[in-house]
Amino acid sequence: MIRGLYTSAWGMLTQANVMDVITNNLANANTTAYKKDGVVVKAFEQMLTQHIENTNNKVKSNPSIGNMSLGASVTEIYTDFSQGMIEKTDNPLDMMIQGPGFFTVLSEKDGQVRYTRDGSFTWSTEGYLVTKDGDLVLDENHNPISFTDFKVDEQGNLLQSDQIIGKILITNFSNPNTLKKVGHNLYEASEASNFDNNFKPHILQGVVERSNVSAVDEMINMISCMRAYETNSKAVKTHDELLAKTVNEVGKV
Amino acid sequence: MRALWTAASGMKAQQLNVDVISNNISNINTVGYKKQRAEFKDMLYSNLERVTIDPGNGPDGSSVQVGHGVRPSAISKLYSNGALYKTDNVLDVALDGRGFLAVDAGDETLYTRDGSLKTSVMPNGSQALTTQDGHYILDIENQPIIIPNNVPSHKITIDEQGNVGYINETGNSIDLNQRLQIVQFDNSGGLESVGTNFTRPTAVSGDPIIEVSGVDTPTKVVQGFLEASNVEIADEMVNLIIAQRAYDMNSKAVQTADQMMEIANNLRR
Predict the structure, then answer these.
(1) Complex ipTM, two decimals?
(2) Average pLDDT over every residue of A23-44
(3) Distance CA A13, CA B119 (A)
(4) Beta-carbon separation of A220 and B265 below 8 A
């Protein structure tokens, strides 16, 4: 009975974690180039259950009854990198990558290289191309970009009066699921991330990428999560009443 | 409970439907626009009980299958002709038939029904016939159509087969021996739209067939007219109402599934 109580309580906790991920997705339904998170919930390892003592045929044996699982937990929170919708802004400093790839930026705070899909850039006071947070956008030589008034073609070349003056650095990874979200629309690569060097980006200028959150999907997940939470809470209540009966009424004189 | 996800697929399908309809409505005044329609398919079915024909020993030949919702199968373009309306612009042409004009788009040839043409100056100084955004219209030799520099644009003539000429100072019409390249496709519905009224041929549409080599139904070129979009506003408004009500009904299904789960949870107070 106590085991059942913890199983149900763990179930409620799991659904609460799932709910956290869903509400984060919904809160970012309008964030530029936001990639939604999904949750994987798996059952715990199954535990072998056995008879304590089976006195059939006057021979002691412990035949196993079967396997029992002790609940479920969140095993993985993955990021879904599917393409978001295009939003036309006609701002020449807004860019979007169609397909895989990330803009490469140098973070202002710690000097580390980070990656982002958010292409809504602006000019810093020193005249460099930066993200809205002030992180420098890097070109192919890992230098900040300081040209004014350029056009960007489909491969990311910067054109000024039809002359190529540079190229935006677009990094692609063969396993983007190793990227970690670090806030401010930025991703951090880990040692396990493999850079894909034979990569041809496809860039559009004057548009931004919308969030890939589908409100309908998140609402349905939320309803399902809430009902699972409710069911688990009823199970907790039932365990509680069984325990109450045991404790209060069984030993009554 | 499958109903939640089935109804969600219905809501997403209607969202796509409304997207397509609103695109049609926004392009109601675009020259040469062809309306689109979203088509849907039902999703795979799971067998709750298999069909068997085993008299006396099992289910009696009727199956119990449950579907999993709907998904979009195609967004098809409908190539019916739009109405032709008269403009007073000599360089507007309408294509009465199934043909497309060929346009030079840099490294490839694109095709369009948009006949609102103008003249532009080429880098070598001569005057050429182009689309409104400056792409050269091609003749049957795949070359841009050059108009002599001393000819003003309002004297240019284009006859029914697409032969380009002009009227000179004495009032005689001179033929420039250049003819508009008009092509047809076996399957216009397979063309890929690339935006700005241009389409690109694909494996599904087939290769362009130049009309001058002889087709069953040649296209007539009408100068001074433009082809309106083939969007019927009444149809689109009715489809919009249907899509909205379908979305509404699917959301009711979601609410009902939710309430049923609530009842199940409240069996134990």
Answers:
(1) 0.70
(2) 91
(3) 70
(4) no
